[in-house]
């Protein structure tokens, strides 16, 4: 897919906008029935069955260090080529085509790749692969 054809999944955490490259996303779902993951850090509320595969569910706001627990309405399941991981988020806003985005340099966040200027406001573009790599380190001790 060319850069001009990229699309981004816009969502919220703690009332702030974030985005993922849609190519890193397998599916968006309602929060599923979850089973606890013994010994996992507190940012993992559990694991879910995703089309026959066990997928760890991460409260993305908690993982990123945002205080408080807002309502979590959606689960963003990552492409299995990245990880067997899903992000619990507040709300999915929409899919944004590249043509509606003005990109600027990323802030000093380890997981941010850029800032996206959108009609709704500024969104931080996250790198799902970088988050998954750090998540593997935290859950494997």
3D architecture notes:
This protein is mainly β and 141 residues long. The chain has one domain (3-139): Beta Barrel (OB fold (Dihydrolipoamide Acetyltransferase, E2P)). Helices cover 11% and strands 45% of the residues. The chain has two helices and eleven strands, in the order E-E-E-E-E-H-E-E-E-E-E-E-H. It has helices at residues 60-63, 128-139; strands at 7-13, 16-21, 25-29, 46-50, 53-59, 74-78, 85-89, 91-97, 102-104, 112-118, 121-126. The protein has a six-stranded mixed beta sheet. A five-stranded mixed beta sheet has the order 3-6-7-5-4. A hairpin with a 2-residue loop joins strand 10 and strand 11 (121-126). It is globular and about 40 Å long. The model has no long low-confidence stretch (mean pLDDT 91).
User: What is the overall pLDDT average?
Assistant: 91
Task: Give the uncertain stretches in residue-range form.
Answer: none
CATH superfamily: CheA-289, Domain 4
In whole angstroms, the N-to-C terminal distance is 36 Å
CATH class: Mainly Beta
Q: What structural class do the secondary elements suggest?
A: mainly beta
Q: How many domain regions? A: 1
List SSEs in N-to-C order: EEEEEHEEEEEEH
In spatial order, strands of the major sheet run 8-1-2-11-10-9
How many DSSP E strands? 11
How much beta, percentage-wise? Answer: 35-45%
Rg to the nearest angstrom?
15 Å
Helicity, in percent? 10-25%
Mind telling me which CATH architecture this is? Answer: Beta Barrel
Total number of helices? 2
The biggest beta sheet reads: 6 strands, mixed
What is the CATH topology descriptor? OB fold (Dihydrolipoamide Acetyltransferase, E2P)
Overall morphology: globular
């Amino acid at each position: 897919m060319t850069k001009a054809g990229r699309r981004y999944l816009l969502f919220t955490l703690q009332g702030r906008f974030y985005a993922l490259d849609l190519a890193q996303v397998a599916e968006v779902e309602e929060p599923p029935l979850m089973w606890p993951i013994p010994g996992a850090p507190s940012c993992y509320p559990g694991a879910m069955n995703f089309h026959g595969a066990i997928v760890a569910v991460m409260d993305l706001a908690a993982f990123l260090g945002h205080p408080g627990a807002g309502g979590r309405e959606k689960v963003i399941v990552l492409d299995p080529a990245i990880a067997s991981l899903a992000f619990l988020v507040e709300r999915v806003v929409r899919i944004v085509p590249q043509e509606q985005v003005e990109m600027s340099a990323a802030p000093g966040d380890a997981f941010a790749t850029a800032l996206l200027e959108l009609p709704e406001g500024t969104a931080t573009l996250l790198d799902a692969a970088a988050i998954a790599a750090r998540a593997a380190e935290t859950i494997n001790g």
